[in-house]
Design brief:
about 70 residues, mainly alpha, 2 helices
């Protein structure tokens, strides 16, 4: 029956954590002022590359529309 109706008769999987050591999601937020010069240069290169790729994709779409 588990092959025909897995939601009803299939194996059940329980995901539980250790109460003494729970799983944590840690997110940190950094402002541009907190970034160093090298990190800012990398971010700038990423942005320039991404904008160039978007522009190339837009130009490709415009060429296909003609």
């Amino acid at each position: 029956m588990s092959k025909h109706a897995p939601a009803l008769y299939g194996d059940k999987l329980t995901v539980a954590g250790d109460p003494n050591a729970p799983l944590l999601h840690v997110h940190t937020v950094q402002t541009l002022e907190q970034l160093g010069d090298e990190e800012l240069e990398i971010l700038e290169r990423f942005c320039e590359t991404r904008l160039a790729a978007l522009e190339a994709a837009k130009n490709g779409e415009d060429e296909q529309a003609k």
